[in-house]
């Protein structure tokens, strides 16, 4: 192999509607179940909403086991009563992720539900058809009651007034009839009045401004909040007195009608901006430093939040101390949160070599906010901070195709154990190197690499793994390689374009493969449906899966099924993890980082990770001979330690590289 998200937190979904009907829920029983795909995850529907739908409303469903469209379809089956009588309809849902689906209320669906004043009371379920496997699944039905309306008139019952806030804080509103955005339309807060600055006498007129109201959840029509924008009264502290109206501006599907509530009085004390805390006391290149407080501005070309930082930096390497005085531009997240990413382009990165230096900074920070011609400076706060050594984060993404292909191994039920073993194995060669494999996108790093684990090789070359990043990244200058998807630049070089680790290619080690080894079939045949095996199931998990610590136990025939499962997890996790380590090594410039044409070690040495594929037999990849996991050879390991130093060290004996 040449070296070449949204998941919304949908709370408040109705899981059970009012029991207004005696329903024949048996009619919602799955029609086609097992098929030929016993390893596919079950489907669950746990919530659906909102409880009032309009033309253009997005109905949101929450659960698990929903299928990526590349493998099949997700349908919503409604059974119950609508305005016009018995209702038994199936609609194709829009896939968001494995836990969320959406369905838009089109004009046709709106009319089918009875139009204005109509409704639905009954039950819904999700029906998943896996076209690749030729099987179907369905969730248990849950009750759902929804009223149908052409339009909604908003009301206000409570308002978060007579309180102290910062600029860009949310102001809570309770009421009813709020719109949820999208095709049905948007609810706005119309705010205007008078602002009395703390540092000047008299009233400054505040021009009326319409600000979107964000619902408390994507399906809640009774609670929401609008942001007290800096565009209302600027960034000075003071007192705002004025009025608020709630405006419902419906979408085109509802005729674009607008309704406005009577005005309510509102009074808010606007506090001066300030810093209250740092989210961490150390960070390295590419890592976020979260700054909390209030009154931050941004997200608009007219407003900016800055940090003036001054003090002394003491280098861990030299012990020398030098003065630092820089202005930093953090990323605006909200009025209470900004975050600065440690980078090489700004003043701090020019003063400190963040790739090679670490040390301690002691000094102070001062917050500066700007809006138009206005500038405000907050009180200084002490700042004590560690500049940490460079750490490379590598996110391992297990794609849906990996899960589907795992079923061919009969190991879908132990997916979590295979992933854990994969990450353990991948990390073993990097002990002593400041690199970390993680199973999710990091929240605290802006700069990180991604490796995708998928099923079949999209290049149709039967590759185990492939680094499709462009060229050698000697000294790891990029930090943001993506080994996965398609890389057009790589394709232009007449190399395969798709990168990642492809687990279906490992079947080449099995019966009939070009590099078949009997041990592969011995390990996996007890579970592989295509070989007459029985996939791991719930009963197996109830009995428990023992932990393997020595692969030599898996090199001989094991008759007890729990041990067979444990060995299959050990072997597959090791083969995936070893391939993952190898491809990441490519992306870091290996085998020889200083030769643009040398992608693998020359010759063949036992347990040498960057050897070519033909020099790494199945038993070595699987670690079933008792020799341990493959490692980087000596010069490669020294190179990695140089560009990503760690306080730990791995003293294992290593083969030579040359």
Summarize the structure.
By secondary structure, the protein is of the alpha+beta class.
Task: Give an overview in words.
By secondary structure, the chain is α+β, with helices and mostly antiparallel strands. Helices cover 15% and strands 35% of the residues. The strands form seven sheets. Strands 31, 32, 33, 34, 35, 36 and 37 form a seven-stranded mixed β-sheet that branches. Helix 5 (415-427) crosses helix 9. It is flat and about 85 Å long. The two termini are 20 Å apart. 43% of the residues are buried.
Structural topology:
Layout: E1 44-49, E2 52-53, E3 58-64, E4 72-82, E5 85-92, E6 94-97, E7 100-104, H1 107-112, E8 119-130, E9 135-138, E10 142-148, E11 155-159, E12 163-165, E13 170-176, E14 185-197, E15 204-212, E16 214-215, E17 223-227, H2 230-233, E18 238-250, E19 258-260, E20 264-270, E21 274-278, E22 282-283, E23 288-294, E24 303-315, E25 321-328, E26 331-334, E27 337-341, H3 347-351, E28 359-371, E29 374-377, E30 381-387, E31 392-398, H4 400-409, H5 415-427, E32 435-438, E33 449-454, E34 465-466, E35 482-483, E36 485-486, H6 488-492, E37 498-502, H7 518-524, H8 538-543, H9 561-587, H10 618-622, H11 634-643
Parallel strand pairs: 2-10, 12-20, 22-30, 31-32, 31-33, 33-35, 33-37
Antiparallel strand pairs: 1-3, 3-7, 4-5, 4-8, 6-7, 8-9, 8-10, 11-13, 13-17, 14-15, 14-18, 16-17, 18-19, 18-20, 21-23, 23-27, 24-25, 24-28, 26-27, 28-29, 28-30, 34-37, 36-37
Helix pairs in contact: 5-9
Give keywords:
658 residues; seven-stranded mixed β-sheet; 11 helices; disordered N terminus; flat; 35% strand; alpha+beta
